[in-house]
Write a structure and sequence with these properties.
Length: 248
């Protein structure tokens, strides 16, 4: 990293048309909208500045501003459809912000709203690994509950088969190659990589492990109820999660 302070765009993409959990980004969790958890944590990070929300939804934009994020532009509707690739919204945000700021952005950190229990350590650690490596992007991972070499299957002609067959028979999880789950905690990327690529895995990607409790992904109504349960029972979670869950 150069001696000058880099410009690190924190980007929260929050469309209004979520289907599995309607109006997900505005649903209450621990007494505040789901999106507020991500905004509050990002604002405490060492490197994130500026922090913006990309949305096509006026209500989400108002709530995001109320909780301290900037909404300098509205996302075009074609980039907020059910089948829109979020990567295109990242590119759009970079281009728009460089025009608004009239300067080059060096890095982008994508922060989905669906990981409300992330900590500042997770975000800052992801960025630190990026700037001290030659990776194009660094993403957060957690240990996978299932392993495609051992206890994950595909359906082939009505018969179940191990998802990834191994030359050597695997009879215990410990014997299978280690696999990781991609989380929605943080994605730290170099600016040129985002603008010149079509998807995340077009580049050289490294990962940072985060605890599963901080990687809870709100994708269903059950996920939302479980997250609320953890908030009401904070003795079950680690201190970094408790800090992230403060409602003041």
């Amino acid at each position: 990293m150069s001696s000058k302070e880099p410009t690190v765009l924190g980007l929260i993409c929050a469309r209004g048309g979520s289907k599995r959990v309607p109006r997900k980004n505005l649903r209450p969790l621990g007494g505040k909208p789901l999106i507020a958890h991500t905004i509050q944590t990002a604002l405490q990070c060492r490197y994130v500045s500026p922090l913006i929300v990309s949305t096509e939804d006026e209500e989400i934009a108002k709530v995001a501003k109320r909780w301290g994020a900037d909404v300098p532009f509205m996302r075009p509707a074609p980039l907020a459809a059910d089948d829109s690739a979020e990567w295109l919204s990242w590119q759009h945000a970079l281009i728009q912000m460089e025009r608004i700021l009239e300067k080059r952005i060096d890095y982008l950190i994508g922060l989905p709203t669906t990981s409300p229990f992330r900590s500042t350590e997770d975000i800052d650690g992801c960025f630190q690994k990026l700037i001290h490596s030659d990776a194009d992007a660094v993403i957060t991972l957690c240990e996978a509950d299932r392993n495609p070499y051992f206890n994950m299957v595909t359906l082939q002609d009505s018969w179940l088969k191990i998802a990834i067959p191994s030359a050597k028979r695997v009879v215990r999880t410990q014997e299978a190659p280690t696999v990781y789950g991609i989380t929605t905690v943080a994605y730290a990327c170099r600016r040129d990589f985002v603008l010149n690529s079509e998807s995340l895995f077009d580049g050289k990607i490294q990962g940072v492990l985060v605890p599963k409790e901080r990687a809870l992904d709100i994708d269903t109504e059950i996920d939302l109820k479980f997250a609320e349960f953890l908030i009401q029972n904070q003795e079950l979670v680690s201190p970094p999660v408790r800090r992230a869950l403060k409602t003041d």
